[in-house]
Design goal:
mainly alpha, globular, 155 residues, single chain
Length: 155
């Protein structure tokens, strides 16, 4: 999935200002100029468009977790490079929004996706696991749409 789309959708879901987006990056220890954030959020056809890298999106999602849930007591190894996949984006969103299995089913239901327990758990397994399943772009896109629908109904 285009990383910029993830940022744009989260901004839309949360109704964040560009300044709030900048604060979330800062929570994860990443100082990003407002002009760069505006580039990430610009449409693909715009002259101001900047492609959002995996590292930047990863920092944003980490900041979103801190913004939504506060700091964790757990020690993490931030020096270890991690490849940002759709599965990891899904995991980080699950943590940020404190979603339980029943919430995930409800989110997928709002976009007319019937997902089984084994299909859902396969998306959250470690890549080395034999029942791991890669999360396709379409599933992540639909999840973000469903998340928006779900959060509207919870308010």
């Amino acid at each position: 999935m285009i990383r910029n789309s993830v940022l744009q959708k989260i901004k839309e879901i949360e109704n964040f200002s560009n300044e709030q987006m900048q604060e979330i990056f800062t929570l994860a220890g990443k100082q990003i100029p407002l002009s760069r954030i505006e580039g990430y959020l610009a449409s693909h056809e715009s002259n101001n468009y900047l492609a959002c890298g995996a590292e930047a999106l990863g920092h944003f999602l980490d900041g979103l977790i801190l913004y939504k849930r506060g700091p964790s007591d757990k020690k993490t190894d931030n020096n270890k490079p991690i490849q940002l996949t759709n599965n990891l984006i899904l995991k980080k969103l699950r943590v940020a929004y404190n979603l339980k299995e029943s919430d995930l089913y409800a989110i997928f239901q709002t976009v007319d996706i019937d997902i089984t327990k084994s299909e859902l758990s396969a998306l959250f397994r470690k890549e080395e696991h034999r029942k791991f399943r890669y999360c396709p772009d379409v599933i992540l896109t639909l999840f973000l749409e469903g998340l928006q629908n779900y959060l509207k109904t919870r308010q």
